[in-house]
Amino acid sequence: MATPLAPLSGKRKRVVLSLEKKLELLERLDKGEKTSALAEEYGVGVSTIIELRHSKSRLREFVGSMDPKDRVRRKVMKKSNDDKLEKALYLWFVQERSKGTSISASTLAERALFFSQHINYEKERLFKASSGWLEKFKKRHGIQHLKNGGEQSVPAEDEVELFQERLRTVMEYEHLLPDQVYTLSETGLYWRLLPKKALVAAHDFQRQPLIFNEDVQRVTMLLCVNATGSHKLKPLFVGDAKVPNCLKHVKLDCLPVSYKQQRDALMDVSIMKDWFLNEFFPQVTQHLRENGLPQRAILVLENSASHPNDGSLQSADGAITCVFLPRNATCKLQPMQQGVIESVKRDYRKSFLSLVVSEKCAGKSMMSLLQSITIREAIYFVDSAWKAVPQQVITRAWCHSILPDWPEGSASKSDTCDGTLLDQLRVLRLSEKDMEDWIHCDRDLPVCATLSDMEIVQFVGTDASFVVEQESEEEDDDDCDSLIMYVPSHNAAVNHFERSLIWLEHQDNCDTSELLALRKLLEKARDKRYQEWKRKSAESCSELSKRSDGLQ
Fold it and tell me: 276 FRET partner, CA 20 to 30 A, in 45, 90, 353, 432?
């Protein structure tokens, strides 16, 4: 009788790891464990682990917005068959949720059909937004508790704890220090707005009060900083003018802020992508290099319509990438909303008020005073206020939001006005309550530009970054900066600096560093004047030489 064949030895049973197990394996791999040992423990081939290592950035991006429970069940990174349709529908969903709109399953299915008709009009197949397709769409994008009666938000406390745990995990995976973790937040700013009582109280407004259009004098301001407060990035201003009149003779790269234009002075996707690639990435890599840190970092940002969650906000190698806050708990998890932005605005209002009071005491009328203040002053006030925020305020904000286990800063939040500010308030007949109302007057301003349904179709239908067509003219004159800036000659600049130097030398609190800085500017103006004189002398000699040759 023939002996039965023994089963082939050494043949490994095919094992497909869940996404959660893959993340766990990558973490151990990053800690230095051997590939062969991990392959034997998890029951997979060495080549599988090598392939997994090469795709780790894509894997972490894919699971970034997923429900943690789905990571355990799901095993493959399978995308939708119609990526453009899903991209359009998810962008619409994020926009509506940022407005606080309650979205039902039937509403989501209706929008899916609309986008399918306009994006896939060349295809013959008929798309049906079935309940099965809708359920898979929700899982792919981490949308939870969407019912026929409307969207039911996950309790904020649960979202807070889940995100805090997720961020700790990411920091452990990537071996990131708090210096390598950044956050950003946008806020609206009425940069030339006085309290209404100040306008009414001024004697030259008693008969004809001056009323400013708040929308004209607003900007959207983006602030970004790391968790230790050691690296504050250059602020970003988004205004409605292409180039404000007061900045037309200024080299924009030399300003302490970056300036971008959008028709409604709001942040949009194209500006965000441009800022990430041309501002955030180079500034962060330089900071990491200067401090001897690995070239890895993450940016924590809000899940809003102007922040694309499509993998475009990351470096080519995935070493610098983004993590998105859950929509239901942004107010509790965003560090910038824990007193940082308020600190900047409080200091900004103080500087603005100091200028108003100083000019008013010099005899200027309130109308001419306000008309003379341009966005150029606002830029320098914001820069000064941003630099003045103490590191302890920033670290405390992170401890009160997404890094609760980190040692808390010792600085206390300033809730009261100082003596100088109180004096300024008395001049304009304002109370401390008026000041507080003024500081928070632009707290709830919209900061993100939203796209219409057809603009979303155009956005996903093009490979290039979508830019909303601007309605402004090439020579964009904004009402805020009606004054055309006079650029002094080199000789006038020398005279101004010489007089300023004499003034500074006679002040009791004169500082040596200030004298040296002013002296350096005076020398620069003199050098410019000399170079201009040489150029004109050479041109004059050349002209005389031509005339003499003509006479001969």
Answer: 90
- Contact, 455 vs 349, CB < 8 A? no
Q: Where are the beta strands (DSSP E) in 249-398?
A: 258-261, 297-301, 320-324
Mean pLDDT, range 483-504, rounded to an integer: 77
Q: Which residues of 485-508 are buried (b: 16+ CB within 10 A; e: fewer)?
A: eeeeebeebbeebeeeeeebeeee
pLDDT of amino acid 257: 94
Handedness of CA 538, 540, 546, 548 (dihedral sign): negative
Measure the CA dihedral 498/501/502/503, to 10°.
120
The tokens describing 182, both together, are 């950044």
Give 23's Cβ-side CA count (13 Å radius): 24
* Whether pLDDT at 215 is above 80: no
What single-letter DSSP state applies at residue 48? H
Decide the pairing of beta strands 297-301 and 320-324: parallel
| 3-state helix/strand/coil string of 222-248 | EEEEECCCCCECCCEEEECCCCCHHHC
- Number of continuous H segments (helices) and E segments (strands) in the chain: 22, 8
Q: Is the pLDDT of residue 78 over 70?
A: no
CB 167 within 8 A of CB 176: no
Share of the chain above pLDDT 90, in %: 20
H helical segments located in 400-452: 419-427, 432-439
Instruction: Note the helical H segments in 130-263.
Output: 131-140, 156-174, 196-201
Element (H, E) at 453: helix 453-460
CA Rg value for the chain: 30
* Residue-level pLDDT at 465: 39
Instruction: Give the C-alpha separation, 310 to 19, whole Å.
Output: 19
* 463 neighbors 95 (Cβ within 8 angstroms): no
Contact 391, 409 (CB under 8 A): yes
Helix (H, G, I), strand (E, B) or coil at 217: coil
Provide CB contacts within 8 A for 477, sequence distance 6+: 241, 245
Write down the mean pLDDT value for the chain.
77
CA gap 523, 528 in Å, rounded: 9
Reported as a single tens digit per residue, the pLDDT across 227-237 is 999 999 999 99
Q: Burial, 5: exposed, middle or buried (Cβ in 10 Å; 0-12, 13-18, 19+)?
A: exposed
Per-residue b or e along 190-226, where b marks 16 or more CB atoms closer than 10 Å to that residue's CB: bbbbbbeebbeebebbeeeeeebeeeebbbbbbbbbb
* Cα–Cα distance list, 26 to 38, 54, 180, 211, 404 (Å): 10, 10, 20, 60, 25
Q: How far is CA 98 from CA 8, 90, 140, 145, in A?
A: 59, 12, 19, 17
The secondary structure of the chain in percent helix, strand, coil, rounded to multiples of 5, reads: 50, 10, 40
Q: What is the DSSP letter of 267?
A: B
Beta-carbon contacts of 21 under 8 Å, excluding residues fewer than 6 positions away, are 42
In 3D space, the residue among 94, 93, 92, 129 whose CA is nearest the CA of residue 109 turns out to be 129
Give the whole-angstrom CA distance, residue 61 versus residue 343.
33
